[in-house]
Amino acid sequence: MDINANTLRGIYTGLSTAYNGRFDSVQTYYSTVAMTVPSTTAMNEYPRLDDLPGFREWFGDRVVHDLSAQTYIIRNREFEKTISIKRSQIEDDQIGIFAPVAAQMGQDAAEFPDQLVFPLMKKAETVKCYDGQYFFDGDHPGYDENGGANIASNFADGAGPAWYLIDDSQFMKPFVYQPRKKFTLTPMQNPDDPNVFYQGKFVWGVDGRCNAGLGLWQLAYKSKATLNEANFTAAYTAMTTIRRRDGSVLNIRPKKILVPPALRMTAKKLLEAELVNGGESNVLAKSIEVIDIPYLA
């Protein structure tokens, strides 16, 4: 194959098609637990996300609830992946073997938010959030039905693999995915480029800017206790009884349970099987969607 502007443009078009086609078709899971908040600068600064009050009947003047002065900053990070193709491989018409590589790069780029969000979720019991407590903790500041100080928990310790209850029906989510620059495929394929002249290689790279951070702890519950009916019910109850500062219920309803592969069958037997104990109806059947996440292993 002769190497000229037309052939190089055709190669880039083919690689881009493979990259974008795979990027757009990959199933991801981060949106189950993370709200996407685009960024236009080096960082985003978030107010305390649980300061929103409930509605009240309007008598007299409005009651203004100031959002807390406490803020939480998520700084964007840069990420890249780069490949090279030897000039001789193009000359020998071997470019076809790189289309699957470009497609895999597209898949990796699409799945990258998963790789940011779920490792953060795994370690969030050691990461402090806006109220000064660890994100998954047994003693978050909470409130009773009269707005009095109380303790709220979204964590149960134990020796087993962790499982997570998630309410993904709210606009806000337990975590934040913050994209700044979309991951795109960029060529460095001018025959006069130094990498071509000195190394005989054409270079294609993918780069983007983004990060993940903490959102509303109230919308997620982590348990390391044995996944059984009693512990599931305790976690579900803990989430659904959390209140706002004014004493009103937050109306949290866990919709999904996220488990590592090791708990997949346990979760399905507990929460999907119609019959248990030799023929009894399973009151928990279909009460929540089971999703196994490899990144939680």
TrEMBL record:
Organism's domain of life? Answer: Bacteria
Q: Which Pfam families has this protein been placed in?
A: Mu-like_gpT
Q: Which residues form the Bacteriophage Mu GpT domain?
A: 9-296
InterPro entries assigned to the protein according to its UniProt record, in alphabetical order: Phage_Mu_GpT
Origin species: Rhizobium chutanense
According to UniProt, the name of this protein is Bacteriophage Mu GpT domain-containing protein
